[in-house]
Design goal:
Residues 205-290, 298-382 form the RCK C-terminal domain. InterPro entries: Cit_transptr-like_dom (IPR004680), DASS-Related_Transporters (IPR051679), Na/sul_symport_CS (IPR031312), RCK_C (IPR006037), RCK_C_sf (IPR036721). It is found in: Membrane. Keywords: Membrane, Repeat, Transmembrane, Transmembrane helix, Transport. It is globular, with a radius of gyration of 26 Å. Helix 7 packs parallel to helix 24, helix 8 (136-147) runs antiparallel to helix 10 (178-193) and helix 20 (469-480) packs across helix 22. It has helices at 3-21, 26-39, 45-48, 55-71, 77-84, 90-105, 110-127, 136-147, 155-166, 178-193, 195-199, 206-212, 282-285, 331-335, 372-375, 396-414, 420-433, 439-445, 448-467, 469-480, 485-503, 506-524, 529-540, 550-556, 563-590, and strands at residues 218-223, 245-252, 255-257, 271-276, 290-293, 308-315, 337-344, 347-348, 363-369, 382-384. By secondary structure, the chain is of the alpha+beta class. The protein has a five-stranded antiparallel beta sheet with strand order 3-2-4-1-5, with no helix packed on it. Strands 8-7-9-6-10 form a five-stranded antiparallel beta sheet. The longest helix has 28 residues, at 563-590.
């Protein structure tokens, strides 16, 4: 092993450790790893920047815009709502939901589909007194099944496709991955409506948990007549620096103010609503001129009327809020909303809201203005679990244009009339020319952090390949699986890829495994396509944890799930996908 190989492997291992420990956002960690390789001369500037001109990465950026136009058309919601049916036969409704969702996610990004339909499914379940936990994990899994069906079903497929083109190969055709993923997906749906349905828990949603335990964290106080607090601001009254309580709302003469600004001056009979650790309520009792209401039966629903409303939001993987406390993030002033409570791992965090360090997957209960959901529906910091009533595209003609543009783009790429990248360029130009989507709207839908992660990860993959580190690792795996031959190598590649996906991200997993798999294929003298298909399926088939795939994370809190639920339901699915993939890949590309 040369010094250069050892250094690259050390950087990659350090990057993986940082990703697992979540010391910063994934895109920043991968960018820093690439910067180290560039600054130390392992990578030239041109090689370090190759990921930013990679065809797969650029195609992902264009498809964000196309998917955004289709999403905001409002065309998709009625499809799934009608497919759910009456709910009298829950297994049938589950099947009727999963099939169209898998079909949609074969052509659109998984994340917006799950974000869009989670509140729809929860509302449908609530109206029929069905536990949403019976439907939300299947909702996430259905989009994963569909995402592996086509070249454009998930960004991971396009990243591998772009790598193949850079290495002088043809890349994937539109439905090539369906040779493996279609039978695997059908078996997955069958599993979910039979065995999986029995394993799915019947749980309270985060919304119900927040409501039922409201007496444990909500308290109220009144500003008394002749109180020395009258005329003082919230800051001056010391209501911003309480030990365990957080001021979320002020009610004055029936008018509600939420969130409460620090410069707001108090008046006689003001009613103040606090959230946090009720054992510290003595703080309020010690403030002269403030009367604390004990034994209150304050309910969440009583917090909202007029301009104030309650909204649920899930902290995303790419959120700038991760690893910051609520106070450090200046959440109240930044989003013009107050956090009432935080739900994590099937339970509410019992501490002062301002001191809670947020993590990906946390479900936030927010008290905000009525227009909050529409203003922050495209925020990268969290996914809103409230339905957006007014889609951005209100013109039916533009909705039709968005759908037709998507269909034509798919047909052009499927029949090799245009490469996928050019078809996507044509689609985006069409959407702009017809004013179906604006430049500002397009910017909202492009996930720049995902693109940065992909571009930087590609640079790291190039370093693994050029230094010989990938060949060294590949040689080790070939020796390790010598007795099992090609099948053993495919199993190892699948297992490592899915393991990386569960603990880091799917795109980073695919990029790291590509050069290693290419080296393994060359050493075994077999068609590398077998390994590339294996990586594409394994990088997306993430079922065993809520943190490996964004779709799973989105439904984690709203469904009231525990980590163990994913293990119990997802591990059999992971094994199912592993077996189907290895068998079909062997007989189609190896045998």
């Amino acid at each position: 092993m040369t010094f250069e190989i050892g250094f690259v492997l050390l950087v990659v291992i350090g990057m993986l450790v940082c990703l697992i420990k979540e010391i910063a956002r994934p895109d920043f960690i991968v960018f820093c790893a690439l910067a180290v390789l560039l600054l130390t001369g392992v990578l030239s500037p041109s090689d370090a920047l190759r990921g930013f001109s990679n065809e797969g990465m650029l195609t992902v950026a264009l498809l964000f815009i196309v998917a955004g136009a289709v999403k905001q058309s409002g065309f998709l919601t009625p499809i799934v709502t009608k497919s759910l049916g009456s709910g009298k036969n829950q297994r049938r409704s589950l099947l009727q939901m999963m099939v169209p969702l898998s079909t949609l996610s074969a052509f659109l990004n998984n994340t917006p589909i799950v974000v869009m339909f989670t509140p729809v499914v929860r509302k449908w379940c609530k109206e029929r007194e069905i536990s949403p936990s019976k439907f939300l994990i299947p909702l996430s899994y259905a989009t994963i099944f569909g995402g592996t069906l086509t070249l454009i079903g998930t960004s991971t497929n396009l990243v591998i496709h772009g790598f193949m083109l850079e290495n002088g190969m043809d890349g994937f055709s539109m439905f090539q991955l369906a040779i493996v993923s279609l039978p695997a997906g059908l078996l997955g749906i069958l599993y979910m409506v039979t065995i999986g349905y029995k394993l799915l828990p019947t749980r309270k949603t985060s919304e119900e948990s927040f409501d039922e335990s409201s007496r444990e964290y909500l308290s109220e106080a009144y500003v008394e007549s002749n109180s020395p607090l009258i005329g003082k601001t919230i800051e001056e009254a010391g209501l911003r620096s309480l030990q365990g309580l957080y001021l979320i709302e002020l009610i004055r003469s029936g008018d509600r103010t939420a969130p409460v600004a620090s410069f707001l001056k108090l008046k006689e009979n003001d009613r103040l609503i606090f959230t946090g650790v009720l054992s510290t309520i003595v703080e309020l009792q010690n403030i002269k001129g403030l009367r604390v209401e004990t034994g209150t039966k304050l309910k969440l629903e009583s917090l909202q009327n007029g301009s104030a409303s309650l909204v649920e939001a899930v902290v995303s993987h790419q959120s700038s809020l991760i690893q910051q406390t609520v106070k450090e993030s200046r959440f109240r002033s930044k989003y013009d909303a107050g956090i009432v409570a935080v739900h994590r791992n099937d339970e509410r965090i019992n501490s002062k809201v301002g001191d809670i360090k947020l993590k990906a997957g946390d479900t936030l209960l927010l008290l905000a203005n009525k227009d909050f959901a529409n203003r922050w529906s495209n925020s990268r910091d969290f996914y809103l679990m409230s339905q957006i009533e007014d889609p951005e595209i209100v013109n039916p003609k533009k909705s039709i244009i968005a759908i037709i543009t998507l269909i034509i783009m798919i047909l052009l790429a499927t029949f090799n009339i245009l490469p996928m990248f050019k078809a996507a360029v044509l689609a985006v130009i069409t959407l702009f020319v017809t004013k179906t989507i604006s430049f500002e709207g397009a910017r909202k839908h492009i996930q720049f952090d995902v693109l940065l992660l992909i571009a930087c990860a590609i640079g790291i993959g190039i370093a693994l390949e050029q230094t010989g580190a990938a060949a060294l690792v590949a040689n080790y795996f070939v020796l390790m699986t010598k007795g099992a031959g090609v099948v053993g190598a495919i199993i190892v590649v699948y297992f490592l890829t899915t393991l990386f996906t569960e603990i880091i991200t799917n795109n980073a997993a695919a990029v790291l495994m590509f050069p290693i798999s290419l080296a393994i294929a060359n050493q075994l003298s077999v068609d590398p396509m077998a390994f590339f298909v294996t990586i594409a399926i394994a990088a997306s088939a993430s079922f065993a944890t809520p943190i490996g795939y964004q779709a799973n994370l989105i439904v984690y809190g709203p469904g009231g799930y525990r980590f163990s639920d994913y293990l119990k339901i997802g591990i059999p699915l992971n094994i199912l996908y592993l077996v189907v993939t290895v068998v079909i890949v062997y007989f189609v590309w190896i045998f």
